[in-house]
Amino acid sequence: MKEKKIRKIIFATGNEGKMKEIRMILADLNVEIQSLKEAGIDIDIVEDGKTFEENAIIKASTVASECDAVVIADDSGLEVDYLNKEPGIYSARYMGEDTSYHIKNANIIERLKGVPEEQRTARFVCAIAAFFPEGRIVTTRGIMEGLIAYEEHGENGFGYDPIFYLPKYKCTTAELTSEQKNLESHRGKALREMKRELDRYEDSNSK
Fold first, then answer.
1. Sign of the CA dihedral 11, 16, 17, 22?
2. 75, 81, 98, 199: which one is catalytic?
């Protein structure tokens, strides 16, 4: 008889919008998933990596030092080709961490003023790292390609979602349903791949 080895997952974020997506995508794991706040962890994390993967690993390993659980962390961001892939790994800190995304989005739109559609290509990138109790680290990556819109649209997303246009749906990711977004999103793709890694981990540790 197989015994489940993953009792709890701590996801290294305090972003409620992100936690909602994570719980929806990982629902069938039947494992408790806690945010940092729910786990009672308050720790400063210095994200000084040069890639999304490096930052995700830094977050996961730092939080893992404070608990005895599987810790998962993500680092994600928006790459705008016309802006030399800015804001990239600095997406959350772009124009300052306390700056509203409405202002950040307006700035990107202004910087692309007059730029034709074919040059407004962009992508959301998400790297996810899982830190297991024995010290093993696994990473996955997901990408969603799109365009930068000419103005904000939609109320369903967060962050840069209102300016990220998907030609396939003829709308921004902030106008998608939760189900559509989880199917197409960079985080959804990376999380589904990580779910497969978690399943393999459980299989390898089962009796």
1. positive
2. 75
